[in-house]
Amino acid sequence: MRTIKELSRRALDQIRPYEPGKPIEEVKAEYGLTRIIKLASNENPLGPSPKAVAAISQALGELHLYPDANSTALKADLAARFNLSTDQIAVGNGSDELIKRLAETFLTAEDEIVVAKPTFSEYRFAAQLMGATTREVPCRDGLHDLAGMREAIGPKTKMVFICNPNNPTGTYVPGELIADFISQLPRDLLVIFDEAYAEYVTASDYASGLSLLPEYPNVVVLRTFSKIYGLAALRIGYAMASPEIIGLLEKAREPFNVNRLAQIAARAALSDTEFLERSRQSNNAGIEQLLAGFARFDWEPVPTQTNFILVDTKRDARELFKQLLAQGVIIRPADIFGLPTYIRVTVGTEEENALFLQAVAKILADQE
User: Fold this and answer.
1) Per the CB 3.0–4.6 Å rule, which of 145, 214, 334, 354 could disulfide with 339?
2) Mean pLDDT, rounded, for 213-221
3) What domains are there in the chain, each with its CATH number?
């Protein structure tokens, strides 16, 4: 008789599930603390859009109703925002679901994907679920090595993922380099731009993959409401691509994949331009505050275009992570990305950033 493990797909043996940041409740219980500062998961420290909260409150009496399976109203809002047609948009249970759906739609065990290293782990995860191979190209000075990625593309390559700005490095690829890169790729290769942090970018030479859609029907752009819009708990993201690609993705969509409150909140958040601008200003000020603190510690940060900073602490990051937990501060040790002396710190409020820096200063002083 076959065991349960033997019934599962052999490819699952190699899969490493996503490792989320440590939950606030767990740290409270473990260390007996009442207040926790979480700077680990790149959430918006200002919370959700007030318009989204108000819209959800009004809809709570409708929880007995199934959501719109096609996210019709939200698609219309997104189409108007980005000057697209509604058949160029797919909505998912977070952009994670859309990454997985791309793999389910287009990948087989005979295929390969090309990604940077380090980058968002869900690309590899989705490929492994389908038995496909992931070819990783190390970043150069924290940046995507586009020349190396182009060289890594072979006859079995089906997809190339470009996280722009990149998680966990916070770096970005300028628009001019992106345009040159894609012009040299085969047109039967899917090029997926994950732009989860695009709304935080301040660099003048950044260009969204959206600008490529009219010329390149093989381009897919992913965005999310989890970051600057502050709706991480509701899990809602979206993909923009050619009608042909979107049509295929919709065939693989589960029924009612995006809940009713998420759709309502996303529509409201999309219209809240005041909250969006306030979030940007808060993030920019927070980056300056953290960089000043890192300079005092002689830490070396990677330049960022996101709401987090990857920084070399020049010490064991996992040990520092544990020491900060004991003081009620959760950050992300970057050893999981192959960077044993780096940590990734989400930009918090002014108070949260100050308390984090104070906690670090105390740890360093105690070690002298």
Assistant:
1) 334
2) 97
3) 4-47+274-366 (3.90.1150.10), 50-272 (3.40.640.10)
